[in-house]
Amino acid sequence: MVKKGFFKKTGCILISASIILAGWTFMCSSTSDAGLNAGVFTFDSETTSVSASQYLGDASIIMIEGQSGITASIGSNAFESCSLLTTVNIKGNANVSSYAFLNDTALTHFEVNGSASIGEYAFKGCTNLGTFSVGTLTSLNKNAFTDCQSLTTILIDNPGTFKTYDGALYQDTTLIYVPAAKKSLQIKDGTTAIASGAFSDGNVFDITFEDAKDITSFDLDQGSWPYFEPKLKVSAIGGANTPIQTFFDKKIELKGTSNYEIIYDSGSGGTTPTTTPTPSEDTYIVTVKEEFYSKDGSTLLTTNTSTQTFTVGTTHTISPEDYTSQGFATTETAKTVSAADTITFVYTATTDTPVIPTPTPTPTPTPTPTPPPSTGKVYTVTVVDEFYKSDLSTMTKTITRSTNKYVDGASYSFSPTSYTGYSNWGGRNESGVVHSDIKVCFFYKPTDGKSTAETTTGTNGGTTNKSGEGITASAVAQQTNKYLITKGGGQVVSQSGGPVTIVCNGELNKLLYILVDGSVLDKANYSVASGSTILTLTKEYIASLTPGDHVVQFQYDDGYAMTGLKITASKTTTTVSYKVSSDGSISSGHTKDTTPKTADGFDARYLLCMAIFLLGAGSILMGRQRKLEMILAEQRDDY
Q1: Does residue 366 lie in a domain region?
Q2: How would you classify the pairing of strands 378-388 and 395-407?
Q3: Integer Cα distance of 118 and 143 in angstroms
Protein backbone atom coordinates (compact mmCIF):
# COMPACT_ATOMS: atom_id res chain seq x y z
CA MET A 1 0.00 0.00 0.00
CA VAL A 2 1.37 3.44 -1.04
CA LYS A 3 2.01 5.71 1.93
CA LYS A 4 -0.13 8.83 2.20
CA GLY A 5 1.51 11.87 0.51
CA PHE A 6 4.05 9.75 -1.40
CA PHE A 7 3.05 10.98 -4.90
CA LYS A 8 2.99 14.64 -3.84
CA LYS A 9 6.45 14.49 -2.27
CA THR A 10 7.86 12.54 -5.21
CA GLY A 11 6.42 15.07 -7.69
CA CYS A 12 7.90 18.02 -5.81
CA ILE A 13 11.32 16.34 -5.78
CA LEU A 14 11.19 15.61 -9.54
CA ILE A 15 10.08 19.15 -10.43
CA SER A 16 12.88 20.62 -8.29
CA ALA A 17 15.40 18.27 -9.94
CA SER A 18 14.25 19.31 -13.43
CA ILE A 19 14.69 23.01 -12.57
CA ILE A 20 18.21 22.42 -11.20
CA LEU A 21 19.20 20.31 -14.26
CA ALA A 22 17.88 22.95 -16.66
CA GLY A 23 19.91 25.65 -14.93
CA TRP A 24 23.05 23.52 -14.99
CA THR A 25 22.57 22.74 -18.67
CA PHE A 26 22.15 26.42 -19.48
CA MET A 27 25.26 27.43 -17.56
CA CYS A 28 27.38 24.73 -19.18
CA SER A 29 26.29 25.61 -22.69
CA SER A 30 26.84 29.30 -21.98
CA THR A 31 30.37 28.89 -20.63
CA SER A 32 31.75 25.96 -22.59
CA ASP A 33 30.39 26.62 -26.05
CA ALA A 34 29.91 30.39 -26.02
CA GLY A 35 30.55 31.75 -29.49
CA LEU A 36 30.96 28.29 -31.06
CA ASN A 37 28.48 27.17 -33.70
CA ALA A 38 28.93 24.60 -36.49
CA GLY A 39 32.71 24.71 -36.28
CA VAL A 40 32.98 28.52 -36.37
CA PHE A 41 33.98 30.35 -33.19
CA THR A 42 32.78 33.98 -33.18
CA PHE A 43 33.91 36.86 -31.01
CA ASP A 44 30.90 39.16 -30.57
CA SER A 45 29.34 41.45 -27.97
CA GLU A 46 28.54 38.46 -25.73
CA THR A 47 31.81 36.59 -26.20
CA THR A 48 34.88 38.84 -26.22
CA SER A 49 37.48 36.62 -24.57
CA VAL A 50 38.71 33.05 -24.34
CA SER A 51 40.52 31.99 -21.17
CA ALA A 52 43.81 30.10 -20.99
CA SER A 53 43.64 26.58 -22.51
CA GLN A 54 39.82 26.81 -22.84
CA TYR A 55 39.70 25.12 -26.26
CA LEU A 56 42.99 23.22 -26.08
CA GLY A 57 42.86 20.26 -28.48
CA ASP A 58 39.32 21.05 -29.70
CA ALA A 59 39.02 19.28 -33.06
CA SER A 60 35.60 20.78 -33.87
CA ILE A 61 36.83 24.34 -34.56
CA ILE A 62 37.63 25.03 -38.21
CA MET A 63 37.41 28.84 -38.27
CA ILE A 64 37.64 31.77 -35.83
CA GLU A 65 36.03 35.08 -36.71
CA GLY A 66 35.45 38.34 -34.89
CA GLN A 67 32.85 41.02 -35.46
CA SER A 68 33.78 44.60 -36.27
CA GLY A 69 34.15 46.83 -33.22
CA ILE A 70 34.98 43.90 -30.92
CA THR A 71 38.36 43.41 -29.24
CA ALA A 72 39.05 39.67 -29.02
CA SER A 73 41.19 38.62 -26.05
CA ILE A 74 42.79 35.20 -26.56
CA GLY A 75 44.42 33.60 -23.52
CA SER A 76 47.59 31.52 -23.35
CA ASN A 77 47.23 28.16 -25.14
CA ALA A 78 43.55 29.02 -25.71
CA PHE A 79 43.37 27.30 -29.11
CA GLU A 80 46.44 25.07 -28.84
CA SER A 81 46.46 21.90 -30.99
CA CYS A 82 43.14 22.63 -32.69
CA SER A 83 43.91 20.21 -35.50
CA LEU A 84 41.22 21.40 -37.95
CA LEU A 85 41.51 25.17 -37.42
CA THR A 86 42.39 26.65 -40.83
CA THR A 87 41.49 30.35 -40.70
CA VAL A 88 41.40 33.23 -38.24
CA ASN A 89 39.63 36.32 -39.59
CA ILE A 90 38.91 39.02 -36.98
CA LYS A 91 37.35 42.24 -38.26
CA GLY A 92 37.94 44.10 -34.99
CA ASN A 93 41.02 44.08 -32.71
CA ALA A 94 42.87 41.17 -31.11
CA ASN A 95 45.12 40.60 -28.11
CA VAL A 96 46.84 37.25 -28.60
CA SER A 97 48.67 35.74 -25.62
CA SER A 98 51.67 33.42 -25.63
CA TYR A 99 51.26 29.97 -27.24
CA ALA A 100 47.64 30.86 -28.17
CA PHE A 101 47.74 28.86 -31.45
CA LEU A 102 50.57 26.48 -30.57
CA ASN A 103 50.87 23.51 -32.97
CA ASP A 104 47.77 24.38 -35.03
CA THR A 105 49.18 22.61 -38.07
CA ALA A 106 46.11 23.21 -40.30
CA LEU A 107 46.14 27.00 -39.80
CA THR A 108 46.97 28.74 -43.10
CA HIS A 109 45.72 32.30 -42.73
CA PHE A 110 45.62 34.77 -39.81
CA GLU A 111 44.04 38.20 -40.35
CA VAL A 112 43.05 41.04 -38.00
CA ASN A 113 41.58 44.13 -39.64
CA GLY A 114 42.14 46.34 -36.59
CA SER A 115 45.04 46.50 -34.15
CA ALA A 116 46.79 43.40 -32.82
CA SER A 117 49.26 42.51 -30.08
CA ILE A 118 51.02 39.15 -30.39
CA GLY A 119 52.66 37.26 -27.55
CA GLU A 120 55.66 34.95 -27.30
CA TYR A 121 55.50 31.77 -29.44
CA ALA A 122 51.87 32.61 -30.32
CA PHE A 123 52.11 30.64 -33.59
CA LYS A 124 54.93 28.24 -32.75
CA GLY A 125 54.60 25.02 -34.74
CA CYS A 126 51.94 26.36 -37.15
CA THR A 127 53.74 24.65 -40.00
CA ASN A 128 51.21 25.62 -42.72
CA LEU A 129 50.67 29.25 -41.75
CA GLY A 130 51.30 31.16 -44.99
CA THR A 131 50.02 34.70 -44.39
CA PHE A 132 49.90 36.92 -41.31
CA SER A 133 48.01 40.19 -41.91
CA VAL A 134 46.98 42.94 -39.47
CA GLY A 135 45.75 46.50 -39.70
CA THR A 136 48.12 47.83 -37.03
CA LEU A 137 50.68 45.88 -35.02
CA THR A 138 51.03 47.34 -31.52
CA SER A 139 53.40 44.74 -30.06
CA LEU A 140 54.99 41.47 -31.12
CA ASN A 141 57.46 39.06 -29.60
CA LYS A 142 60.03 38.12 -32.23
CA ASN A 143 59.65 34.43 -31.31
CA ALA A 144 55.96 34.50 -32.27
CA PHE A 145 56.54 32.69 -35.59
CA THR A 146 59.02 30.02 -34.48
CA ASP A 147 58.83 26.91 -36.71
CA CYS A 148 56.30 28.50 -39.10
CA GLN A 149 57.94 26.80 -42.07
CA SER A 150 55.42 27.95 -44.72
CA LEU A 151 55.21 31.62 -43.73
CA THR A 152 55.95 33.71 -46.80
CA THR A 153 54.83 37.16 -45.77
CA ILE A 154 53.79 39.49 -42.97
CA LEU A 155 51.48 42.37 -43.89
CA ILE A 156 50.72 45.53 -41.88
CA ASP A 157 48.18 47.87 -43.48
CA ASN A 158 48.96 50.83 -41.20
CA PRO A 159 52.70 50.80 -40.45
CA GLY A 160 53.95 52.49 -37.29
CA THR A 161 56.67 51.23 -34.97
CA PHE A 162 56.26 47.88 -36.72
CA LYS A 163 56.32 47.82 -40.51
CA THR A 164 56.96 45.36 -43.30
CA TYR A 165 59.00 45.45 -46.47
CA ASP A 166 59.33 42.65 -49.01
CA GLY A 167 57.35 40.47 -46.60
CA ALA A 168 59.84 40.83 -43.70
CA LEU A 169 59.17 42.54 -40.36
CA TYR A 170 60.90 45.66 -39.03
CA GLN A 171 60.74 47.47 -35.68
CA ASP A 172 61.68 51.08 -36.37
CA THR A 173 64.88 50.72 -38.46
CA THR A 174 65.81 47.23 -37.25
CA LEU A 175 65.03 44.07 -39.22
CA ILE A 176 63.64 41.67 -36.59
CA TYR A 177 62.11 38.73 -38.50
CA VAL A 178 62.37 37.15 -41.95
CA PRO A 179 59.62 34.60 -42.82
CA ALA A 180 60.91 31.06 -43.10
CA ALA A 181 59.58 30.40 -46.61
CA LYS A 182 61.34 33.39 -48.22
CA LYS A 183 64.23 32.49 -50.52
CA SER A 184 65.27 36.01 -51.54
CA LEU A 185 65.09 39.31 -49.67
CA GLN A 186 65.41 43.03 -50.30
CA ILE A 187 66.57 44.77 -47.11
CA LYS A 188 64.98 48.20 -46.95
CA ASP A 189 66.95 51.37 -47.56
CA GLY A 190 67.46 53.04 -44.17
CA THR A 191 67.77 49.79 -42.19
CA THR A 192 70.43 50.26 -39.50
CA ALA A 193 70.54 46.90 -37.72
CA ILE A 194 69.84 43.18 -38.11
CA ALA A 195 68.48 41.89 -34.79
CA SER A 196 69.50 38.70 -33.04
CA GLY A 197 67.54 35.78 -34.50
CA ALA A 198 66.06 37.78 -37.39
CA PHE A 199 67.09 34.98 -39.80
CA SER A 200 66.88 32.09 -37.31
CA ASP A 201 64.00 30.45 -39.21
CA GLY A 202 65.32 31.72 -42.52
CA ASN A 203 66.15 29.97 -45.79
CA VAL A 204 67.21 33.09 -47.69
CA PHE A 205 70.14 32.60 -50.09
CA ASP A 206 69.84 35.80 -52.16
CA ILE A 207 70.04 39.11 -50.26
CA THR A 208 70.21 42.69 -51.49
CA PHE A 209 70.99 45.54 -49.11
CA GLU A 210 69.41 48.56 -50.79
CA ASP A 211 71.85 50.86 -48.97
CA ALA A 212 74.63 49.02 -47.18
CA LYS A 213 76.19 52.16 -45.70
CA ASP A 214 73.28 52.45 -43.21
CA ILE A 215 73.94 49.06 -41.57
CA THR A 216 75.75 49.64 -38.25
CA SER A 217 75.01 46.30 -36.56
CA PHE A 218 74.58 42.72 -37.80
CA ASP A 219 74.07 40.39 -34.82
CA LEU A 220 76.09 37.19 -35.16
CA ASP A 221 73.40 35.06 -33.48
CA GLN A 222 71.21 33.94 -36.41
CA GLY A 223 70.78 30.27 -35.51
CA SER A 224 71.97 27.89 -38.22
CA TRP A 225 71.51 30.45 -41.00
CA PRO A 226 73.03 31.10 -43.50
CA TYR A 227 73.13 27.94 -45.58
CA PHE A 228 75.44 27.70 -48.57
CA GLU A 229 73.37 25.36 -50.73
CA PRO A 230 72.45 26.71 -53.19
CA LYS A 231 75.15 29.34 -53.43
CA LEU A 232 74.70 32.31 -51.11
CA LYS A 233 74.62 35.64 -52.93
CA VAL A 234 74.85 38.98 -51.12
CA SER A 235 74.58 42.33 -52.92
CA ALA A 236 75.40 45.50 -51.00
CA ILE A 237 74.54 48.72 -52.81
CA GLY A 238 76.50 51.62 -51.39
CA GLY A 239 79.86 49.93 -51.08
CA ALA A 240 81.73 47.77 -48.59
CA ASN A 241 80.31 47.58 -45.07
CA THR A 242 82.26 46.28 -42.08
CA PRO A 243 79.34 44.74 -40.06
CA ILE A 244 78.08 42.88 -43.15
CA GLN A 245 81.56 41.69 -44.12
CA THR A 246 82.35 40.62 -40.54
CA PHE A 247 79.12 38.62 -40.21
CA PHE A 248 79.58 36.62 -43.40
CA ASP A 249 83.32 36.16 -42.86
CA LYS A 250 82.59 34.61 -39.46
CA LYS A 251 79.90 32.32 -40.85
CA ILE A 252 82.03 31.26 -43.81
CA GLU A 253 84.99 30.58 -41.54
CA LEU A 254 82.79 28.63 -39.11
CA LYS A 255 81.23 26.43 -41.79
CA GLY A 256 84.34 26.00 -43.93
CA THR A 257 82.68 26.79 -47.24
CA SER A 258 83.47 29.00 -50.19
CA ASN A 259 80.15 28.58 -51.97
CA TYR A 260 79.24 32.24 -51.68
CA GLU A 261 79.48 35.58 -53.43
CA ILE A 262 79.48 39.07 -51.94
CA ILE A 263 79.15 41.96 -54.37
CA TYR A 264 79.84 45.48 -53.13
CA ASP A 265 78.26 48.02 -55.44
CA SER A 266 79.37 51.63 -55.01
CA GLY A 267 76.12 53.03 -56.37
CA SER A 268 75.62 55.40 -53.44
CA GLY A 269 79.15 56.76 -53.40
CA GLY A 270 80.75 54.00 -51.33
CA THR A 271 84.17 52.44 -51.71
CA THR A 272 85.51 50.86 -54.87
CA PRO A 273 83.43 47.80 -55.80
CA THR A 274 85.05 44.49 -54.92
CA THR A 275 83.92 40.98 -55.70
CA THR A 276 84.71 37.89 -53.69
CA PRO A 277 85.87 35.23 -56.16
CA THR A 278 83.47 32.42 -56.87
CA PRO A 279 84.99 28.99 -57.46
CA SER A 280 84.27 27.06 -60.62
CA GLU A 281 83.55 23.33 -60.54
CA ASP A 282 87.23 22.43 -61.14
CA THR A 283 88.86 24.92 -58.74
CA TYR A 284 88.80 25.79 -55.07
CA ILE A 285 89.60 29.03 -53.29
CA VAL A 286 91.68 29.56 -50.17
CA THR A 287 91.24 32.83 -48.27
CA VAL A 288 94.39 34.06 -46.51
CA LYS A 289 93.92 36.50 -43.62
CA GLU A 290 96.84 38.41 -42.05
CA GLU A 291 96.18 40.00 -38.65
CA PHE A 292 98.64 42.60 -37.33
CA TYR A 293 98.70 43.39 -33.58
CA SER A 294 100.44 46.01 -31.42
CA LYS A 295 103.65 45.19 -29.54
CA ASP A 296 101.76 44.11 -26.41
CA GLY A 297 99.31 42.04 -28.49
CA SER A 298 96.24 43.86 -27.16
CA THR A 299 95.28 45.93 -30.20
CA LEU A 300 94.48 44.75 -33.71
CA LEU A 301 96.10 47.32 -36.00
CA THR A 302 94.90 46.05 -39.38
CA THR A 303 93.83 42.96 -41.30
CA ASN A 304 94.81 42.07 -44.85
CA THR A 305 92.75 39.51 -46.79
CA SER A 306 93.64 37.85 -50.08
CA THR A 307 92.55 34.76 -52.02
CA GLN A 308 94.37 32.06 -53.94
CA THR A 309 92.73 29.72 -56.48
CA PHE A 310 93.92 26.14 -56.98
CA THR A 311 92.89 23.18 -59.11
CA VAL A 312 90.67 20.59 -57.45
CA GLY A 313 92.64 17.50 -56.45
CA THR A 314 95.92 19.34 -55.82
CA THR A 315 97.63 20.11 -52.49
CA HIS A 316 99.52 23.33 -51.75
CA THR A 317 101.59 24.85 -48.97
CA ILE A 318 100.99 28.45 -48.00
CA SER A 319 103.67 30.17 -45.91
CA PRO A 320 103.45 33.38 -43.87
CA GLU A 321 105.01 36.49 -45.41
CA ASP A 322 108.19 38.02 -43.98
CA TYR A 323 107.42 41.46 -42.50
CA THR A 324 110.51 41.80 -40.26
CA SER A 325 111.70 44.85 -42.19
CA GLN A 326 108.41 46.55 -41.36
CA GLY A 327 108.58 45.73 -37.68
CA PHE A 328 106.39 42.61 -37.46
CA ALA A 329 107.17 39.00 -36.58
CA THR A 330 105.15 35.80 -36.41
CA THR A 331 105.40 32.38 -34.83
CA GLU A 332 103.09 30.90 -37.44
CA THR A 333 104.33 28.09 -39.69
CA ALA A 334 103.40 27.05 -43.21
CA LYS A 335 99.96 25.50 -43.68
CA THR A 336 98.90 22.82 -46.16
CA VAL A 337 95.59 23.08 -48.03
CA SER A 338 93.82 20.68 -50.39
CA ALA A 339 90.28 22.17 -50.42
CA ALA A 340 88.48 25.46 -49.95
CA ASP A 341 89.50 26.97 -46.63
CA THR A 342 90.29 30.14 -44.70
CA ILE A 343 93.66 30.31 -42.97
CA THR A 344 94.93 33.04 -40.66
CA PHE A 345 98.47 34.24 -39.90
CA VAL A 346 98.97 36.41 -36.81
CA TYR A 347 101.80 38.98 -36.62
CA THR A 348 102.94 41.01 -33.62
CA ALA A 349 104.84 44.31 -33.76
CA THR A 350 108.49 44.14 -32.65
CA THR A 351 108.85 47.93 -32.27
CA ASP A 352 106.67 50.72 -30.96
CA THR A 353 106.48 52.28 -34.42
CA PRO A 354 105.98 49.48 -36.94
CA VAL A 355 105.20 50.17 -40.59
CA ILE A 356 101.64 48.93 -41.28
CA PRO A 357 101.83 46.42 -44.14
CA THR A 358 99.57 46.87 -47.16
CA PRO A 359 98.14 44.00 -49.21
CA THR A 360 100.16 42.80 -52.18
CA PRO A 361 98.29 44.01 -55.29
CA THR A 362 96.56 41.27 -57.23
CA PRO A 363 97.66 41.08 -60.89
CA THR A 364 95.08 42.65 -63.14
CA PRO A 365 94.09 41.58 -66.66
CA THR A 366 94.72 43.64 -69.77
CA PRO A 367 93.14 47.08 -69.22
CA THR A 368 89.79 47.73 -70.83
CA PRO A 369 88.41 51.12 -71.85
CA THR A 370 87.39 53.09 -68.78
CA PRO A 371 83.63 53.84 -68.73
CA PRO A 372 82.37 57.30 -67.83
CA PRO A 373 82.60 57.95 -64.07
CA SER A 374 79.59 56.81 -62.02
CA THR A 375 77.20 59.49 -60.83
CA GLY A 376 76.00 57.24 -58.00
CA LYS A 377 72.47 57.16 -59.43
CA VAL A 378 70.43 53.96 -59.65
CA TYR A 379 68.53 53.17 -62.87
CA THR A 380 65.95 50.56 -63.86
CA VAL A 381 66.49 47.98 -66.59
CA THR A 382 63.15 46.43 -67.60
CA VAL A 383 63.07 43.16 -69.56
CA VAL A 384 60.01 42.78 -71.79
CA ASP A 385 58.92 39.84 -73.97
CA GLU A 386 56.79 40.81 -76.99
CA PHE A 387 54.62 38.29 -78.89
CA TYR A 388 53.75 38.80 -82.56
CA LYS A 389 51.54 37.20 -85.16
CA SER A 390 53.17 34.61 -87.39
CA ASP A 391 53.70 37.20 -90.17
CA LEU A 392 55.25 39.60 -87.60
CA SER A 393 52.78 42.30 -88.64
CA THR A 394 51.09 42.81 -85.25
CA MET A 395 52.13 42.48 -81.61
CA THR A 396 49.49 40.45 -79.73
CA LYS A 397 50.76 40.47 -76.14
CA THR A 398 53.49 41.94 -73.91
CA ILE A 399 54.95 40.31 -70.80
CA THR A 400 57.16 42.26 -68.40
CA ARG A 401 59.58 39.55 -67.35
CA SER A 402 61.57 41.48 -64.73
CA THR A 403 62.65 44.90 -63.47
CA ASN A 404 66.24 45.26 -62.30
CA LYS A 405 68.18 47.99 -60.46
CA TYR A 406 71.68 48.98 -61.61
CA VAL A 407 73.97 51.83 -60.59
CA ASP A 408 75.20 54.25 -63.20
CA GLY A 409 78.05 52.69 -65.19
CA ALA A 410 77.24 49.05 -64.38
CA SER A 411 77.12 46.43 -67.14
CA TYR A 412 74.11 44.24 -67.82
CA SER A 413 73.25 41.31 -70.12
CA PHE A 414 70.01 39.37 -70.68
CA SER A 415 68.98 36.44 -72.87
CA PRO A 416 65.62 35.34 -74.31
CA THR A 417 63.59 32.83 -72.34
CA SER A 418 61.40 29.96 -73.56
CA TYR A 419 57.62 29.87 -74.01
CA THR A 420 55.67 26.81 -75.09
CA GLY A 421 54.58 27.22 -78.72
CA TYR A 422 56.83 30.24 -79.41
CA SER A 423 60.34 30.89 -80.72
CA ASN A 424 62.56 33.94 -80.33
CA TRP A 425 63.27 35.86 -83.53
CA GLY A 426 65.13 38.93 -82.30
CA GLY A 427 65.75 41.45 -79.57
CA ARG A 428 66.79 44.99 -78.69
CA ASN A 429 69.22 46.35 -76.06
CA GLU A 430 70.12 42.81 -74.93
CA SER A 431 73.34 44.00 -73.22
CA GLY A 432 75.24 47.18 -72.51
CA VAL A 433 76.23 49.74 -69.88
CA VAL A 434 73.65 51.57 -67.77
CA HIS A 435 73.53 55.38 -67.84
CA SER A 436 69.73 55.78 -67.81
CA ASP A 437 66.54 53.71 -67.56
CA ILE A 438 66.61 51.02 -70.25
CA LYS A 439 63.98 48.75 -71.82
CA VAL A 440 65.29 45.38 -73.02
CA CYS A 441 62.99 43.69 -75.55
CA PHE A 442 62.86 40.14 -76.91
CA PHE A 443 60.55 39.21 -79.78
CA TYR A 444 58.66 35.91 -80.18
CA LYS A 445 56.47 34.31 -82.86
CA PRO A 446 54.34 31.11 -82.91
CA THR A 447 56.24 27.98 -83.87
CA ASP A 448 53.12 26.44 -85.48
CA GLY A 449 52.51 29.38 -87.79
CA LYS A 450 49.49 30.60 -85.82
CA SER A 451 49.29 33.73 -83.71
CA THR A 452 47.61 34.08 -80.35
CA ALA A 453 44.78 35.91 -82.07
CA GLU A 454 44.25 32.89 -84.30
CA THR A 455 44.13 30.29 -81.50
CA THR A 456 41.43 29.63 -78.96
CA THR A 457 43.25 27.34 -76.59
CA GLY A 458 46.75 26.84 -75.32
CA THR A 459 48.44 24.48 -72.91
CA ASN A 460 50.00 24.77 -69.52
CA GLY A 461 51.98 21.68 -68.70
CA GLY A 462 49.36 19.52 -70.41
CA THR A 463 46.39 21.44 -68.99
CA THR A 464 44.05 23.12 -71.44
CA ASN A 465 44.25 26.89 -71.16
CA LYS A 466 40.72 28.12 -71.87
CA SER A 467 41.72 31.72 -71.31
CA GLY A 468 42.43 31.97 -75.02
CA GLU A 469 45.89 33.46 -74.61
CA GLY A 470 47.86 30.42 -75.69
CA ILE A 471 50.83 31.47 -73.54
CA THR A 472 52.44 29.34 -70.86
CA ALA A 473 54.45 30.78 -68.02
CA SER A 474 58.14 30.01 -68.23
CA ALA A 475 59.62 27.28 -66.07
CA VAL A 476 61.21 29.95 -63.88
CA ALA A 477 57.87 31.72 -63.36
CA GLN A 478 56.15 28.43 -62.51
CA GLN A 479 58.75 27.74 -59.82
CA THR A 480 59.00 31.23 -58.31
CA ASN A 481 56.63 31.82 -55.40
CA LYS A 482 57.25 35.58 -55.22
CA TYR A 483 53.74 37.00 -54.90
CA LEU A 484 51.53 37.18 -51.81
CA ILE A 485 47.84 36.72 -51.03
CA THR A 486 46.94 39.93 -49.17
CA LYS A 487 43.20 39.40 -48.59
CA GLY A 488 40.85 36.44 -48.59
CA GLY A 489 43.42 33.68 -48.24
CA GLY A 490 42.45 30.36 -46.64
CA GLN A 491 38.71 31.02 -46.73
CA VAL A 492 36.12 28.47 -45.61
CA VAL A 493 32.99 28.91 -47.72
CA SER A 494 29.82 26.87 -48.17
CA GLN A 495 28.75 25.86 -51.66
CA SER A 496 25.96 28.44 -51.44
CA GLY A 497 28.29 31.12 -50.07
CA GLY A 498 29.63 32.59 -53.33
CA PRO A 499 30.89 34.74 -54.86
CA VAL A 500 34.40 34.60 -53.31
CA THR A 501 36.97 37.41 -53.56
CA ILE A 502 40.74 36.87 -53.17
CA VAL A 503 43.36 39.62 -53.55
CA CYS A 504 46.98 39.08 -54.65
CA ASN A 505 49.69 41.76 -54.69
CA GLY A 506 50.84 40.95 -58.25
CA GLU A 507 50.27 43.50 -61.01
CA LEU A 508 47.19 42.75 -63.08
CA ASN A 509 49.00 43.39 -66.37
CA LYS A 510 51.39 40.53 -65.53
CA LEU A 511 48.63 37.98 -64.86
CA LEU A 512 48.59 35.08 -67.32
CA TYR A 513 45.83 32.88 -65.91
CA ILE A 514 44.11 31.52 -62.79
CA LEU A 515 44.40 27.85 -61.82
CA VAL A 516 42.21 25.86 -59.45
CA ASP A 517 43.59 22.49 -58.34
CA GLY A 518 46.23 22.73 -61.09
CA SER A 519 43.81 23.35 -64.00
CA VAL A 520 43.52 26.66 -65.82
CA LEU A 521 40.17 28.21 -64.98
CA ASP A 522 37.72 29.23 -67.71
CA LYS A 523 37.29 33.03 -67.73
CA ALA A 524 33.53 32.55 -67.55
CA ASN A 525 34.01 31.43 -63.93
CA TYR A 526 35.74 34.53 -62.61
CA SER A 527 36.51 38.21 -63.08
CA VAL A 528 39.61 40.23 -62.22
CA ALA A 529 40.08 43.90 -61.38
CA SER A 530 43.10 46.10 -60.73
CA GLY A 531 44.27 47.21 -57.31
CA SER A 532 47.03 44.60 -57.38
CA THR A 533 44.90 41.67 -58.64
CA ILE A 534 41.36 41.33 -57.29
CA LEU A 535 39.94 37.94 -58.23
CA THR A 536 36.21 37.19 -57.86
CA LEU A 537 35.06 33.59 -58.34
CA THR A 538 31.42 33.53 -59.41
CA LYS A 539 28.61 32.24 -57.21
CA GLU A 540 27.79 29.57 -59.78
CA TYR A 541 31.40 28.33 -59.87
CA ILE A 542 31.62 28.10 -56.07
CA ALA A 543 28.38 26.08 -56.08
CA SER A 544 29.94 23.66 -58.59
CA LEU A 545 32.99 22.87 -56.46
CA THR A 546 32.90 19.67 -54.44
CA PRO A 547 33.14 19.97 -50.64
CA GLY A 548 36.72 19.75 -49.45
CA ASP A 549 40.05 21.54 -49.86
CA HIS A 550 40.96 23.31 -53.11
CA VAL A 551 43.98 25.32 -54.24
CA VAL A 552 43.69 28.66 -56.07
CA GLN A 553 46.80 29.87 -57.93
CA PHE A 554 47.55 33.24 -59.50
CA GLN A 555 50.09 32.67 -62.31
CA TYR A 556 52.00 35.73 -63.49
CA ASP A 557 54.64 36.00 -66.17
CA ASP A 558 57.41 36.13 -63.54
CA GLY A 559 56.05 34.18 -60.57
CA TYR A 560 52.98 32.93 -58.76
CA ALA A 561 51.00 32.90 -55.50
CA MET A 562 48.57 30.32 -54.19
CA THR A 563 46.12 29.88 -51.33
CA GLY A 564 43.74 27.27 -50.00
CA LEU A 565 39.95 27.44 -50.38
CA LYS A 566 37.81 25.09 -48.30
CA ILE A 567 34.29 24.35 -49.56
CA THR A 568 31.70 23.01 -47.13
CA ALA A 569 28.41 21.38 -48.08
CA SER A 570 25.35 23.66 -48.04
CA LYS A 571 22.57 22.90 -45.58
CA THR A 572 19.36 21.88 -47.32
CA THR A 573 15.75 22.28 -46.23
CA THR A 574 13.09 20.04 -47.76
CA THR A 575 9.86 21.85 -48.62
CA VAL A 576 7.02 19.32 -48.45
CA SER A 577 3.46 19.67 -49.71
CA TYR A 578 0.82 17.23 -48.46
CA LYS A 579 -2.10 15.89 -50.38
CA VAL A 580 -4.50 14.37 -47.88
CA SER A 581 -6.87 11.65 -49.02
CA SER A 582 -10.49 11.42 -47.85
CA ASP A 583 -9.46 8.83 -45.26
CA GLY A 584 -6.92 11.23 -43.78
CA SER A 585 -3.76 9.50 -45.14
CA ILE A 586 -0.98 11.12 -47.15
CA SER A 587 -1.26 10.40 -50.84
CA SER A 588 1.30 8.14 -52.54
CA GLY A 589 4.44 9.91 -53.77
CA HIS A 590 4.56 12.43 -50.93
CA THR A 591 6.94 12.21 -48.02
CA LYS A 592 6.90 13.76 -44.63
CA ASP A 593 9.24 16.73 -44.01
CA THR A 594 12.02 15.63 -41.65
CA THR A 595 13.96 18.92 -41.59
CA PRO A 596 14.51 19.99 -37.97
CA LYS A 597 12.44 23.01 -37.02
CA THR A 598 14.58 23.85 -34.01
CA ALA A 599 18.00 25.47 -33.97
CA ASP A 600 20.96 23.26 -34.94
CA GLY A 601 22.57 23.91 -31.57
CA PHE A 602 19.58 22.76 -29.44
CA ASP A 603 20.83 20.79 -26.43
CA ALA A 604 19.06 17.44 -25.97
CA ARG A 605 19.51 17.73 -22.20
CA TYR A 606 16.62 20.21 -22.18
CA LEU A 607 14.34 17.35 -23.30
CA LEU A 608 15.44 15.35 -20.25
CA CYS A 609 14.62 18.33 -18.02
CA MET A 610 11.16 18.58 -19.57
CA ALA A 611 10.52 14.84 -19.13
CA ILE A 612 11.48 14.97 -15.44
CA PHE A 613 9.27 18.04 -14.91
CA LEU A 614 6.27 16.33 -16.55
CA LEU A 615 6.85 13.18 -14.51
CA GLY A 616 6.86 15.25 -11.32
CA ALA A 617 3.68 17.09 -12.32
CA GLY A 618 2.07 13.76 -13.14
CA SER A 619 3.01 12.40 -9.70
CA ILE A 620 1.36 15.36 -7.96
CA LEU A 621 -1.81 14.94 -10.03
CA MET A 622 -1.87 11.22 -9.28
CA GLY A 623 -1.53 12.02 -5.56
CA ARG A 624 -4.53 14.35 -5.75
CA GLN A 625 -6.51 11.71 -7.64
CA ARG A 626 -5.77 9.15 -4.93
CA LYS A 627 -6.82 11.61 -2.19
CA LEU A 628 -10.12 12.32 -3.98
CA GLU A 629 -10.84 8.59 -4.28
CA MET A 630 -10.24 8.12 -0.56
CA ILE A 631 -12.67 10.96 0.36
CA LEU A 632 -15.36 9.49 -1.89
CA ALA A 633 -14.80 6.05 -0.39
CA GLU A 634 -15.27 7.45 3.17
CA GLN A 635 -18.52 9.17 2.14
CA ARG A 636 -19.88 5.89 0.75
CA ASP A 637 -19.02 4.15 4.02
CA ASP A 638 -21.08 6.75 6.00
CA TYR A 639 -24.18 5.78 4.06
Answers
A1: no
A2: antiparallel
A3: 10
